[in-house]
Amino acid sequence: MRSAARRYEYRLDACGPVRGESAMAGPVSIRLDEHLRRDLEEEATARGVPLASLIRDILATAVRDARRQRIRESSARVAAYIATSAPARAMLTETGGPHSDQA
User: What is the pTM of this model?
Assistant: First the structure.
């Protein structure tokens, strides 16, 4: 017999900057299984923050890390292209390199 897993739904307010302050956008609804909910609640309690704040912090960190990873991957693709392309290397040399102050 299969037991029905309980699902929990939380509403989060998304944050965004407005004139240097954090403004709340519309809520986002996510579904958590019982184990994940319990783990998140335990972590929130250990940190002394509300569950929604913990989830916002975790998501913000994950998005920032993902963005940085995409930038690193893109930079690696550009470097690989320059390494295999004589015209690209010549252009880079002419412009003074990747960190040139020349426009």
Answer: 0.61
